Structures are given as structure tokens and as C-alpha cells.
Request: fold
Amino acid sequence: MFSVVSLLALLASSVTGSPVEVRNSLITLPMRRTFSNVTDILRHDEARMTAFREYSTHDPRTSADVPLTNIAMAYTVAVNVGNPPVTYELVVDSSSSITWIGADTAYTSFSGFNTGEHVAVDHIYGHFQGTIFRDTLALTAELSIEEMPIAISSTRHGFDGVLGIGPEVSSLGALQNQNSREDTIRPVTDYLSVRGTTSQAAVGIFFQPAIQVTDNHGQLTFGGADHTMHTGRIKYTPVTTVYPSSRYWGINQKITYNNIEIIHLTAGVVDCGCTFLYIASDAYERYRIATGGIVNAANGLLQITKANYNRLYALKFYIGEEIYDFNRNAQIWPRSLNHVVNGNENDIFLVVKNLDRTSGAGYDFINGYVFLQRFYTVFDAVNDRVGFARTLFTSATTN
Reply:
């Protein structure tokens, strides 16, 4: 049987388009961001937290029924698959290395080859089962990846699928008919790098702070960082060795507020799929007291007064040898989107939420979308590291 893990042998002839123009270059795709309502956002984030907490500790092949959640907040990119080409709007997922389609728009390609390999994933968006096909994945009109392993969903989920940019290790145990749990499925970043299309298996993510429900101000760059999108140097930190954060884009960091240690140096996850900034329960309580926040009954977010907002200090993230300031404006939900979280126009809500578990469990924080929109982020699989840089929007006051 043809194995997904042997696909790299085919890469030398697997790119169409102009190899001279694209070799060792950056490949940039526009990203679109959408928000749903607060109920869906919170359920969506809860599903992701459950996945980080539980899905990494058992065999997904034994699962049968995991509730699905709506795509409440998502980065999406449009790609074409197969011949004739069909456009799929895929959720960019940094927690999985598997690209899969057919969950909404059907897979109808005549050019795909069924490898006979079955995949089952307790995915962030629910339990997914399907079959691995090899087919053409077109990232742009000029650049297509032939023989790309793509999982075709056997059930409908209400959205097209996922473009996996997570570490390869995140797919451990996903292949059902492999003898070893060491077999994995490589992300698209690896295929681009191995064939020389890009110089390295790395991806950069940029988004500016949201001011409306849907916008197109995002950018996904394969091959490394787009240096026009950040200011100053990118500072890297190693992927943590602490499990289960080590299965994802996990890092070690410390957070302080007004010289109060909110959370000690510990492991957690950087994730473009979670909306809010989540910290362990004990850290959350220290932050709540320090800011004067009161949990809003309608949306579960911490709410503060205008006076307390004016007294907010920056949250300081100690990551590697760098300190990143999360200013007071970055700590609040954008007021232009208060209607999304069942708030009034002038309400002030904080974006720091309770992880609902005490620190010391191997993942004590999730730096979600609200963090990524303030710092350019690079996931570097070659060197097992995550990089951050300030942007023109790091200190923005648009919220």
C-alpha cells in the first residue's frame, strides 16, 4: 500500500508553474477573518481547549463521537484542489498538520488518487474521518503542488475543511492502518520546502486588529517571514518540551501585570484558532483582582469601568530573552464589535479568559487571536521554534 509518509520521494516533479520564479521565494496568500456571535465564539474556544487538554492523551482511532462546533472566528484562505479545480475556503489551523477538504463543498476531482489510507482525528473542530487522496493543491494561479496528500472527509461538517500548518508531530496516531504510531502526515509547509519551492518549512502570520466582523487584512506567508509586515527583529524561542504543549506550537513564557507575576514561567500554546487569551485559573484570578474586572453574566467576559480602563497597566509577556508589552488597548475587546459579544456600545470587556484549570498541567495558557493580531508570528518547523516581532499595530488604540 502506498504510504503517506513515503510521499516525499515524489516531490522532485510535483510542482507546476514556473520553478525559476518561485524557487526559494516567499509565497503569500491573503487571509479573510470572520466573527460569529459570542455563544459560538466561546463554544468554539472551549472545543479547542478541550482538544489541547484531552485529545493529545488518547488514540483518536478509538473515538466515535465528538461534538462539532461552529466556525465562530476563523482565518480562512481560498485554494483550488483537483481537476477540474474546485475552490475551497479552508480554515487555517496551527494545531494540525493535516489538510482536509470535502466537509461542505464536495470533492469531485477526476485527478485524485486514492491511497487507501484512512485517517481519524479528534480534531479541534470535532471528530473527523476520511481517506487520504493524492491530488493537486493550487495555492495560487501560478503555483500548484501535485501529489499532495489531502484527507477527504467522509461526513459533512458545515465548512469546507482545514489547511493544516501545525507541527508534523500533531498528526501522530491519525493514520488508522499504520503499524506504528510514529507515522505522521506532513503539513503543506514541508512539501513546499523539501522540493525547494520555499527556502524553509516556516510560515508567517499577520493580522491587524479587528474593527469589523469580516475583513481581508490578513496574510499567510509560506517560506518564512514577510519582513514588510513587521518592525524590528523577529525574536525566536524554542518549541517547549513540556507535554502536551510540545505537540503543538507550544512555548514557555511568563506574564506579569504591574510587577505582579500573573503566571510563572510555564508552557502553553500559540494558536491562531482560539479567539481570546487564556490563562490558568489561578493566574486568571490574580489578573481579575488586579484589574477590577467583574464577570459579565451575558457573555462570561471580564468587564471593567472606564476608570479602571484608565488605570490598566500593560501585560508583559516574557518569551525567550524578549519582553512583549500588551498595552491596555490590546487587553480589551474592540468596542466596534461589542454587539458580537452581547454588549452595549460603551461597555469595556477584557480579552483575558479563564482556562478553567490550575497551572502546572503542561499547558497553562493559550495565546490566541487577540495576541497574534498584535505581533507578527512565525512558526518555524525546521528549527522547532516560534518567532514574534512587533508590527505597526502592536500599540494600536483601535479597540
Q: What stands out?
A: The helical segments are 19-22, 38-54, 188-194, 281-291, 306-310, 369-372. The first helix runs from residue 19 to 22. Residues 1-24, 56-72 have pLDDT under 50 and may be disordered.
